[in-house]
Amino acid sequence: xxxxxxxxxxxxxxxxxxxxxxxxxxxxxxxxxxxxxxxxxxxxxxxxxxxxxxxxxxxxxxxxxxxxxxxxxxxxxxxxxxxxxxxxxxxxxxxxxxxxxxxxxxxxxxxxxxxxxxxxxxxxxxxxxxxxxxxxxxxxxxxxxxxxxxxxxxxxxxxxxxxxxxxxxxxxxxxxxxxxxxxxxxxxxxxxxxxxxxxxxxxxxxxxxxxxxxxxxxxxxxxxxxxxxxxxxxxxxxxxxxxxxxxxxxxxxxxxxxxxxxxxxxxxxxxxxxxxxxxxxxxxxxxxxxxxxx
Length: 294
Hints:
six-stranded antiparallel sheet, 33% strand, 31% helix
């Protein structure tokens, strides 16, 4: 083999490697989506790119507890790559009643679908509506649609996060030991996520856990070792009847039972809950409920 042929083969090889690396980099580059949506996001441990829109403008109370945005008032949207130019997106928008119609119209005009419109809580004031969304296609187009919809609401612009979370008046180590899952402090709330073990499919691809298919349990301290809790259990049909009596027998209200998605396999049911009681006792009850899940 001639020297010139060897050099040509080597050049082709390194060009292929460089192109592959460049394409891989593009797959992880969300800068254009971030620019379109108008705020920074964060890549989750499972690879999804997630953007949060906390409704810090809202003054919502429930049973005398003022809800922090991280407890139950956080809009979000998450993206997963489906090839080089396509993405799957899912999210949940926290809206006041008078914002719902305009937001749905804006999303529909830009091919972002609503997969659920409903409550998560009971007795909250003012009333809050949750609009779940789903889309596939160009992620920049989807991000532009979400931003256009949010611009019709009073969702505040992004703020600079503090370097370290403020101390929280809650025995998070006890909750971690009891639940068996470690959480994180976010905006004065201890947030725990319990991903499902099986793959949940939609449109021939699997949904990442951080795109809304992990059980969410949030603790907001209310003083004297007590905590307000809310979130949602993500369940298969056979798990629903096992979990409801455990929660209710421990003073935890069931505030909603419904779907969040359209067309997922296996079919999932989302059950929201609420209580304000001793944090350790509530964590024990929640652990019993988690143990009923696959």
